[in-house]
Amino acid sequence: MQSPLSAILKNISMPASPPSHYKSRVFLLSLCFFLFCGSASAHFYYDRNFPFAGTAPDLSKMLPDSAGKSSFWSIKNKTYFVAFKQKLLAEGHPENDFRFQADLAFCNYILGDPLAATTLENLYKSHSEESNLAANLSLIYEQKGNKEKALQLAKRSYALFPGAWFGSGQLRIDLLQGNNKVLALNGNTPFDHWLNDPKQTIAANTDTLMLQLAWQLHLRTAIFPSPDSVTAKLLIAFADLVAKTNTRSTAKPFYEAALQYAPGQKAFITARLALMDASAKEVKKTFRWAALVWGVPILALLIAFTGNIINRRKKQAGISSSSASQGPGNGTRLP
Question: Residue 106 and residue 119: Cα distance in Å, rounded?
């Protein structure tokens, strides 16, 4: 069954009659790059540092390492935005550049300046056609508890630029409306069956879904401190997708990060982690059996092949010896 999250992909702006090769991964990367670098596409105007790995997010850059260094998600610290602010100020943008003002104000809000919200409000009054401004104010109103205003602005932002944030605007609207089922990637299929059965696939392009989730988490972890149930749900969905498309061990840190945002779901997330361990052991066991099943006949072939070579060399040695014994000087003496 198709996951509700897959439907979000339909909202990415595309030509009316795209040729079939648009479905290729090359096109997907070009599309994502265009959407991200558009003038009103990514919440920030002057931040172009999304960590790609091919057409998908670079999983190694999402979470902070054991030393707590800067990461794309602000789970342990906000050093990403500290660095971005420093870079923004050093670039020498004109002070009357509203894009510079918008980026600086939103960055200041993330870093703890509540007055920056007023700056964004004033900028939106003057530039009401800017998707970025509407999206950023939507996040701020949600954090302040005004979900009605947050939903209104999210819809406005989405109407202005449906393809923004890798097409994840509809996902944000669904979550504001309380439609958490959009994050159930396995649909109505039991999760363990969906995870381990290769026939259970995701209808939409997994790289695009991962980009959408990664971008939403980039902003949400910067603004919403733990605990936050929506952030936890996004992290769980991201981890589910990694577990399905990557390795179980790669998915585990993302489930562990979700624990920080949803301590009330400890039993649920712990069950997911236990399933990761069990699945990893099953995969190892399968590989051992495969090695045994294929290893024995391959070894037998090698032994037979080696024996054949040895026998052929012995025969050749025997023929050479016989020929040498019948040659001149060893046979009948010439007259």
Answer: 9
The answer to whether 169 touches 154, Cβ cutoff 8 Å, is yes
Q: What pLDDT shows up at residue 14?
A: 37
Return the bridge partners of 56, or none.
Answer: 53
Single-letter code of the amino acid located at 306: T
Contact assessment for residue 40 and residue 30, using Cβ atoms and an 8 Å cutoff: no
Question: 5-24 as b/e, with b when 16 or more CB fall inside 10 Å?
Answer: bbebbebbeeeeeeeeeeee
How far apart CA 212 and CA 241 sit, in angstroms, is 12
Helix (H, G, I), strand (E, B) or coil at 241: helix
Predicted structure pTM score: 0.75
What's the rounded Cα separation, in Å, for the pair 138 and 146? 9
- DSSP annotation string for 309-332: HHHHHHHHHHHHHHHHHTSTTTSS
Distance CA 81, CA 72 (A): 9
CB atoms within 10 A of CB 316: 10
* Alpha-carbon gap, residue 105 to 88, rounded angstroms: 11
How many whole angstroms separate alpha carbon 155 and alpha carbon 173?
A: 7
Neighbour count for residue 161 (Cβ, 10 Å): 22
Write down the pLDDT at residue 334: 40
What whole-number distance in Å separates Cα of residue 224 and Cα of residue 149? 17
Which of the pair, 15 or 102, is modelled with greater confidence? 102
